[in-house]
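Support case: user asked for a sample of complex input and structure output to validate their parser. Sending the pair below.
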Amino acid sequence: MNERDDAQDAWAEQTTLPLEFDMNTLIARARRFERAIRRRNQIEIGTGAAIAVIFVVAAVQFDIPAMRFGALGVAIGALFVVGVLRTKGRVEPLPVDLSSGAYLGAYRAALLRQARLLAWAPVWYVLPLLVPAAVFVSGIRQPGEPFELGHFTLLLVIGAVVSVVNLHAARQLRREASALE
Amino acid sequence: MTALHEPRFRALIRDHEQAIARLSRAFERDPDRRRDLQQEILLAVWRALPAFRGDCSDRTWVLRIAHNVAATHAARGSRDRVTRAATLEDVELPALEQGSDRGLLLDRVHALVERLRPLDRQVLLLWLEGLSTKEIADLAGLSATNVSTKVHRAKALLARSLAETP
């Protein structure tokens, strides 16, 4: 038996259904794809800028030093997070017609870079927002009132949840990258 | 992207739709996910078309895109499960059912393809599509010797697997 010819013949003789596609839908999908990338960039910058503006305004208005410094810290933290997302978290689309070795290697490297960034999210994402938020919350307490643990606990829970979600996402990206080895 | 590219796109897809259909079947058993993969491939070809300068044959170009998209699609599907893909050196094929020679052989081929890691899978699929060693090497970014070795291993695996058929 000639395995080569037989295997290739069997392969070529498979019954396959014709590809279904509608040109208008395809063009609309391509445009949506481009728009989604632009929108993601705008949302990243817009959200960071909005948080920064809100907390700068809050910092100006509050008289209590802890709240003022805390709000200012949150604004700086938000700008820092956006900066990290824009520089280290940016995903440039790869030319899909590269040779597969090059394409899959570059794709894998990008996945691992994103996974590292997500794994370090507690440091560059959670802490820069959580620490000044804790300072801000400490100022809410009126003089003479007992120390309020509720707000701090809430902040810690939020920080922990965000960290766990990011670590889980990092693990998924590593799994995806290892499937490309 | 303009309507100028539409006739070229339609011609490319018409000429290579069988190969795309076979490839997507090799990567996705589930019909719905297979249709999604085909749409992803078509979208990628459409988006890449304006930059295509004919540096390689149409077939090589379309298959390269299809393989890259299919490999990343399959990898995305593995996010929530432990990947068990193997290389041609350590892959194991399951026991065979009885059937016609041609049907058995095709089952063997699919079983082998499904178990391979992306680059080995690509080499095997391209060989099955009838590409030359040089074309496969260019497309996959491997040396011709490496491709020959992988094809030889795949053929030996298929032959051994068929010889073990009860």
